[in-house]
Amino acid sequence: MFGVRTNAFIKTLSHPNGVYIINMRSASSNCIFFGNKRLDPSQNVVIVGGGYGGIKVAKELKGKGNYTLVDPKDAFHHNMASLRAAVVPGFSNKTFIPYRPAFGEHFVQGTVKDINVEKKTVTLSNGEEIVYTDLVLATGSLGPFPGKCDHSTGCCFKLAQLYEDFALEVKEAKHIVLVGGGAVGVEMSGEIAGDYPDKKVTIIHNNNIIVSSVLEQSARDLIMDKLRAKNVNVLFGEKVTNLADLPLNKVVSEGIRVKTSKGNELIVDMVVPCFGSSTNDSAYAKALGGSMNEKGQLKVNQYLQVEGHNRIFAIGDCNDFKVTKLALEAQQQGAKTFENLIHLGKDESLEPYKSNTVRMVVPIGRDGGVCQNGTTVMGDYLARIIKAKDVFVKIMWKEMGQSVPKN
Fold first, then answer.
1. Could you report the per-residue pLDDT of 21-72, keeping only the tens digit for each?
2. How far apart are CA 114 and CA 138, in angstroms?
3. Is the pTM of this model over 0.85?
4. Which residues, including other chains, have CB under 8 Å from residue 260's CB and lie 6 or more apart?
């Protein structure tokens, strides 16, 4: 018989300035003292998705009440560093940070198959039900490898090995085509050209705007200057017409014939998909279909509450809040959601979420790139210091309370 997770294992003792929480799950009860910024003892928060937004909520809730973080993987995937892991052998283990040391018994590895909004339960694929008072959906988005990885694999060692295998393919290749000139394609080209300057790298991009239209024209011009300096060729306004027939992410020594919508043909030995992502709505599509838009994103209000459900929040890529979908944005939404969970427990007014100015860093190899803060555009030095040097690896391991492993 499958268990049901509830608040039954948590007891509270009152205190003039806060609450003692006694954890009854462990063999020896641990008393932890909290100040006023904490959940109400009646609250049980369930967070579905352990990406940048989900772990931000979980981290803020540590020591402040009862919560459960659910994710199909056993480790947080530091996705911002995935493209370096795809090129540098031995780097991939730095991009998967285990959940258990960070969140202990508050982490449950599993895939959410159903949500019952009337009963306020989340059902996992193994049949286990988790009861919630407040639900945070942070399911993120899906996309092709290596920019994204298949989370259903579950085991971080297996996922890391996929990147190690891919890095060996890159090492072997002589001419690589990257399909897509967004942030993933541009960063990937920089990683390859930076480490392997003798390789030929071509980006085939189906529109005329490199990376994103939210960037200033001067930022996009600077990106193109840096790509040219690394001998990366960009074909604008062309679509690969035979993509469905091509072998992806592996070297074919006899050559791969890539055809484009403008009639061009390229003979290459490796093709890597770097195009757009789609919303990961599998956990909530059935239960909250009426609150979704055509992209599968959940419609939210200014407090990031899902339309028609004031105790369900959606953050990051899975909501329709009008912002550029970036990791930093998901983290900021997670921080605001934590604050509003506290307010809900105290029956206080919620705080609206307000997105900050556009902040984007586009590394083009380890030696630099382009960054934009608001409308201010900066080059190599700041791009290298902020992101390009170690792609936030040290910061994220520190956020998860762990040390970066050595190669």
1. 333 333 333 333 335 789 999 999 999 999 999 999 999 999 999 999 999 9
2. 15
3. yes
4. 204, 235, 238, 239, 240, 241, 266
